[in-house]
Amino acid sequence: MSAAKRSFFGILGGRKRAKSMPREGGDGDPDLFKGGRNMALKLPAHQFEATLQFYRDTLGLPVKMMADGVPVVEYGPIRLWLDRSETVSRSELWMEIVAKDAEKADAALEAAGVTRCDNIEPLPKDFRGFWVMSPADVVHLVAEPGQDSSEED
Question: Phi-psi region for residue 82, left (φ > 0), alpha (ψ -120 to 50) or beta?
Answer without folding.
Answer: beta
